Amino acid sequence: MKLLALTCGRKMANCEILTKEALMGAEELGAEVEIIRMLDLEIHHCNICWPCPAMMKGYSSCIHKDDGPFLFEKIMDCDALLISAPVYSLTPPGYLIAIRDRILGNKVDVASLAEVKKSQGKDERFDFTFHVDDRIFKKRVGAFISVGGAVSHDWVTLSLPLLYTMVFPMEIKVVDQMQVCGVADDGAITLKENELQKARDLGMNIVKASKQPYDSVKFVGEDKGVCPVCHCKAIVIDDDGSIICASCGVRGTLKIEGNKVIPIFLPEEQDKSHLFLEGKKIHHFEVGNVIKELDPYKEKIPELSKKYASYKSPVIPPSKQKKDK
Ligand SMILES: Cc1cc2nc3c(=O)[nH]c(=O)nc-3n(C[C@H](O)[C@H](O)[C@H](O)COP(=O)(O)O)c2cc1C
C-alpha cells in the first residue's frame, strides 16, 4: 500500500513534523510512504484554456511545462493520500488551491468522467474528445492534518472544509482529520505529545482503512464535527433558511434547544453530498443544463460583448509586458 503525503508547510516545521509522525505510524503497519514538500514544486496556476489540452490529451500536453504532470502521476500512483497544510488567513495556502484548479478539481471529477467514458470520450456539449485516465477511478482513502497558529477556532474555520475540495472530485474517502490550534513557531508541535499521538494514530488509521473493502470504510477521526458526512463545521444559511454544509454541500435545517443550535441533516440529503457519486452526478447534469439552456441565445453573445471588448482603458498590462489576450 503506497501512502503519499503532500505537506504544505515549511521544511521541518510543524506540518512536516506531524506528517512524519503519521508516516511513522503508517510504516509500522506496513505502508510504503513518500512525502512531497509542496513548496519545493513549481506549478503554474491554470490558465483555463478551452478546450484544455490536458483534458484532451493528458497532463503532459498542458501549456505549462512544470511539476504539474509529476505531481499528478504521483497522486495517480498512490493508494492513499495524506495532505497536511498550515492555515493561512483561515484557509489552506493559496498555492495548494491553485494546484487543485490546475490538476485536480473538475479535471478529475469521477461523475463527469464516468459519463464521458460511456461515450468513448465524447460529451455532447463539447466538440472535442476527452482523454480519460482510468487511474482517476481507483478507490483511495485519505486524511488531513491542518495546523493553525491561533488558539481560537475562529481563525481556522475554512481550512478543513477547503482541504476537502482537493479530494472529493476523485472520491478519495477521508478516514481521519485533525485541526491543530496554537502552534506557530518552528517545531513547536514537538512539545505537544497529544497532537503527535493523534497524527501517529491518523497514519495508522489510513493504513487500516486501506485494508478494508472500500464500501465499508468509515470515518474514524476523534472529532466528529457537525456535518455527518464530511465532519467539518462550516455551515452556510441559505436564502430560504435551510442550511448547507459549506464543505460537502449537504442540506439540512437548524433546531434550537435552549442555547444550543442543532443541525439536522436527513439521510436522503446526506446521500447527495459532493463526496458521493450521486451528489457529483447532480452537479454534472445541472451544469450540463446550464450549457444547454444557453444554446438558443449563444449567437447574441459576440454582439453583446462588443461594448466590453472595446472598453480597454482600465486594463493595465502585466509588468513582464505580456500581451493582453
Ligand atoms: C501568511 C500566514 C498566515 C497565517 N494565517 C493564520 C490564520 O489565519 N490562522 C491561524 O490559526 N494561523 C495562521 N498562521 C500561522 C500558521 O498556520 C502556523 O504558523 C503554522 O504552524 C505554519 O505551518 P508550518 O509550521 O508547517 O510552516 C499564518 C501564518 C502565515 C505565515
Q: Which helices and strands, and how do they pair?
A:
Elements: E1 2-7, H1 14-28, E2 32-37, H2 53-57, H3 68-77, E3 80-86, H4 94-103, H5 110-118, E4 141-147, H6 159-167, E5 173-180, H7 193-210, E6 235-237, E7 243-245, E8 251-257, E9 260-264, H8 267-270, H9 277-294, H10 301-309
Parallel strand pairs: 1-2, 1-3, 3-4, 4-5
Antiparallel strand pairs: 6-7, 7-8, 8-9
Bound molecules: flavin mononucleotide.
Can you give a write-up of this model?
This protein is of the alpha/beta class. The protein has 2 domains: 2-223, Flavodoxin domain (Rossmann fold), CATH 3.40.50.360; 224-295, no CATH class. Helix content is 33%, strand content 16%. It has 10 helices and 9 strands. The protein has a 5-stranded parallel sheet, sandwiched between helices. It has a 4-stranded antiparallel sheet with strand order 6-7-8-9, with no helix packed on it. A hairpin with a 5-residue loop joins strand 6 and strand 7. The longest helix is centred in the middle third of the chain and has 18 residues, at 193-210. The radius of gyration is 21 Å and the shape is globular. The model has no long low-confidence stretch (mean pLDDT 95). The structure holds flavin mononucleotide (FMN). Residues 9-10, 13-15, 86-90, 147-150, 155-156, 183-184 line the site of flavin mononucleotide.
What characterizes the major β-sheet?
Answer: 5 strands, parallel
Q: What is the name of the CATH topology of the largest domain?
A: Rossmann fold
Helix content estimate = 25-40%
Query: How large is the count of helical segments?
Result: 10
CATH homologous superfamily heading of the largest domain: Flavodoxin domain
Shape: globular
Number of strands: 9
Beta-strand content? 15-25%
Ligand identities: flavin mononucleotide
What is the number of domains?
Answer: 2
Rounded to an integer in angstroms, the radius of gyration calculated over CA atoms is 21 Å
